[in-house]
Amino acid sequence: MSLLEIKNLNISYKTRKETIVASSNVNFTLERGEILGIVGESGSGKSTIANAIINLIDPPGQITDGTIKIDNQELQNNEEIIQKIRGKKIGFVFQDPQTSLNPLFKIKDQLIETIQTHLSLSYEEALNKSINLLQEVGIENATKRIEDYPHQFSGGMRQRVVIALAISCEPDLIIADEPTTALDVSIQYQILELLKELTKKRNLGVIIITHDMGVIAETTNKVIVMRHGLIVEQGNTKDLLTQPKSTEARSLVISVPPTNKKIERFKLIGPDGSEITSSSANLTKNIIKTWGVRQNTNQKLLELKKITKIFDDQSFTYGKKIDDKAVKAVNNVSFQLFEGETLGLVGESGSGKSTIAKIITGLVRPSFGELEYNGLSLYNFKRKYQIDKSRGQIQMIFQDPYSSLNPRFKVKDIIAEPIKFFQKSITRNDLEKNVHDLIDIVGMTRKSLDRYPHEFSGGQRQRISIARALATRPRLLICDEPTSALDVSIQAQILNLLKDIQDELHLTMLFISHDLPVIRQMCNRIIVLKNGAICETNETEKLFNEPDHQYTKQLINLMPKIESLI
Amino acid sequence: MIKKTFNKIYDTDIGFSFFNSKIAIISSSIFFIIFLCSFFAGIVAPYNPFDPASVSLMDAFTPPVWSEGGSASFFLGTDQQGRDMFSTMIYGSRISLIVGFASILFAMILGVFLGVTAGYIGGRYEIIVMRVTDIQLTIPTILMALLVDGIARAVISRSMHDEMAIYVLIFAIGISEWPQFARVTRASTLVEKNKEYVSASRIIGLSNIIIMFKHILPNILRPILVIATIGLALAIITESTLSFLGVGVPPTTPSLGTLIRFGNNFLFSGEWWITFFPAIFLVVLALSINLLGDWMRDALNPKLKKR
Question: What is the DSSP letter of B271?
Answer without folding.
Answer: -
